[in-house]
Amino acid sequence: MRFSRPAILSAFAMPLIAAAGNAPAPAPAAGAPVATSGPSTNTGPVTWADFLTSCQTPGQIALTYSEGPSEATMEMLETLKEAKATVTFFANATWLQYMQYAGVTRHAYLDGHLIGMTYRLPSDTSTGRTDAEIKEDIGRASRTIQDLIGVYPKYMKIHESNLKDPRLLNLVKSMGYTLVGFNMDEYDYKYNTAQTSGQIAEVYNAMFSKQMDAYGRKASYVVAGYDVPSTGAAAGLPKVVNTIQAHGYDMVRLDGCTNDKTPYKKDPIQNNGFVGDKKSFGAAEYKHGQNAVKNVTPQLGQNPSLTQGGSAAKDANGGTMKKSSASRTLATLASTLIPAMVLAYLL
Ligand SMILES: *[C@@H]1O[C@H](CO)[C@@H](O)[C@H](O)[C@H]1NC(C)=O
Q1: For residue 217, what are the CA distances in angstroms to 59, 117, 194, 250, 332?
Q2: In sequence order, what are the beta bridge partners of 91?
Q3: Which of 54, 70, 186, 236 could lock 197 by a disulfide, CB 3.0 to 4.6 Å apart?
Q4: Who lines ligand 1 at CB under 6 A?
Q5: Which atom of ligand 1 is nearest to the CA of 117?
Q6: How far is the CA of 286 from the centre of ligand 1 (A)?
Q7: How far is the CA of 133 from the centre of ligand 1 (A)?
Q8: Model confidence at 28, in pLDDT bands (50, 70, 90)?
Q9: Strand 152-153 vs strand 274-275: parallel, antiparallel, or unpaired?
Q10: What is the whole-number distance in angstroms between the Cα of residue 335 and the centre of ligand 1?
């Protein structure tokens, strides 16, 4: 089971990696997709072209992570702080009901990272639900994030198992969300041990080198990663940052990637405009780029700041934590393996 995911993902990632080698494709226009008026009943095809998969400026690279927050996110925040680099985290609102993980996402936002959201339909189907019900479910997740960081997310990662649902995708677009895809997979679920996580940087190295050999110029990348302890994302990150630095690429958040000054929504459901904050692209505290970091390989799944403070934490209802770090790891593993097969089928 543990090994099925890399094999499956490799199969579908090939065309994407090949596509990434071409001259940089024009990125979708900055800002939101065009609004549609009235309730969405559009079930027309939604293709990969409807997703954000590259940046506007060659030489940019936007690292994105989904499935978190988790212990891995916390570890990554430390590396990114040292690197003075920013990325995009798609928060899974389910985990934000636990104080321990809510704190991680808030920390990420305050550190200057862009916060997007992940979404997955209940029972993985839009059938039997009205548009209004689906919108309300999306709105609930969005409000959970807003409670924490003060703004509603705009950049959205749809869970793999829902990517074949054009009704959902059209609905999400009509609500003003930006659908995010990728043109590079860092394979952190494959290189998921302390011994192999160093290979993640090799994925970047190979991608950059092939691009330069073939075209003599840089491309731009939107990278898919998973900030959970069952992947090597956290352990591999120092070397990844140093590889990006060595090749002269510029690390950006997704708003920097699309030149988007308003990377958050005004409303979780209505498509009635967007807002920026002081760290958004073009604002005073917006940051991009990176510094080299000490190339240490942290211990996977170990984070002192979480195990000390987190164990005694109470959830929003005053109860003790229902899920330990270990259950977070297992739950994530189970929830990611099966959808990957569906995605392989889709692509
Ligand atoms: C969030 O995490 C829960 C628990 O692991 C999972 O069931 C759910 O599918 C995840 N949601 C998304 C949008 O990935």
Answers
A1: 9, 33, 33, 14, 38
A2: 117
A3: 236
A4: 92, 94, 118-120, 159, 331-332, 335
A5: 13
A6: 30
A7: 18
A8: very low
A9: unpaired
A10: 7
Burial 85-96 (b: 16+ CB within 10 A, else e): bbbbbbbbbebb
Write down the pTM of the prediction: 0.79
Nearest residue CA, atom 9 of ligand 1? 120
More confident residue, 119 or 296: 119
Strand runs labelled E in the chain = 60-66, 88-91, 114-119, 152-153, 155-158, 178-179, 184-185, 221-226, 250-251, 264-265, 274-275
Which of these, 264, 230, 246, lies nearest to 113 by C-alpha position?
Answer: 264
- Point out the ligand 1 atom lying closest to the alpha carbon of residue 334: 5
Q: Enter the DSSP assignment of 320.
A: B
Mention every residue, 6+ apart, whose C-beta is less than 8 A from residue 43: 166, 167, 170
Reported confidence tier of residue 11, pLDDT bands at 50, 70, 90: very low
Residue 194's pLDDT band (boundaries 50, 70, 90)?
Answer: confident
Residue nearest (by alpha carbon) to ligand 1 atom 13:
119
Query: What's the N-to-C CA distance of the chain in angstroms?
Result: 21
Helix (H) or strand (E) holding 212: helix 199-215
- The protein residue whose alpha carbon is closest to atom 10 in ligand 1 is 92
What is the number of the ligand 1 atom nearest to the C-alpha of 332?
A: 5
CA-nearest residue, atom 3 of ligand 1: 94
Q: Which two tokens stand for residue 273?
A: 């405009």
Tell me the CA–centroid distance for residue 291 and ligand 1, in Å: 33
DSSP state of 308: H
Question: Could you write out the DSSP letters of every residue in 18-80?
Answer: HHHTSSPPPPPPSSPPPP--SS--------GGGSB-S-SSTTEEEEEEES--SHHHHHHHHHH
pLDDT of residue 325: 47
Q: What is the distance in A from the centroid of ligand 1 to the CA of 120?
A: 7
pLDDT above 70 for 27: no
Q: Peptide bond before 69: cis, by omega within 30 degrees of 0? A: yes
pLDDT band of 232, cuts 50, 70, 90: very high
* Cα–Cα distance, 110 to 320 (Å, whole number): 26
Q: Tell how strand 264-265 and strand 152-153 pair up.
A: antiparallel
